[in-house]
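We store chain and fold; example below:
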Amino acid sequence: MITPIPPVVPAGRLARQQQPSFVLPGGRELRPWRESDANVLVASCLDPEIVQWNRPEALTPDTAREKVARWGQRWTEEAAAVWAISRREDDRAVGLIGLGDLDLRGGSAEFLYWLLPSGRGGGAVLDATLRVSRWALEELGLHRLRISHSVGNPASCRVAQRAGFALEGTMRSALLHADGWHDEHLHARVAGDPWPDGADLGTLPY
């Protein structure tokens, strides 16, 4: 008889908890998106760098608010976990980080992230990646996290490597961008991998 493989993370573990917020170094925090952040999402779709690498859909304030509502629903459905990267001084969202393709049964998820120009510099994405990784692996109980990016995006490659995501290979012609098909690097971190020396993993949720 074949023994059924139990889920890595039991169904309901994510949906039963309120989405946490996390304090990050450098006066930043991760918090759930709000309807009042709609204009930030609209602006992200107009930024050339975000458009190049993240391929967002064009948004209006109304459709941006609908997107925020969908993210809340996706949390409840245990399908995604998406945070705003915000400045604590004024609570303004300047970026996004999240886990998409979330598979609790299989214990895996894939990172997505971007920053507006006002949030770039100072290691915001690296700090956010480390903190969400710690939460996902040590608190939620996932086993494997992925980062994939175009080989033409060295900034994302640096984030992955500095966050301890090992480069596993190159996926040929894997994603269609505005200028054609791009090869992609695949990075991953699995439970038990050592954290980078000197990494500031942030404080516990509040």
Summary: The helical segments are 38-44, 48-54, 61-76, 124-140, 154-162. The first strand starts at residue 22 and ends at 24.
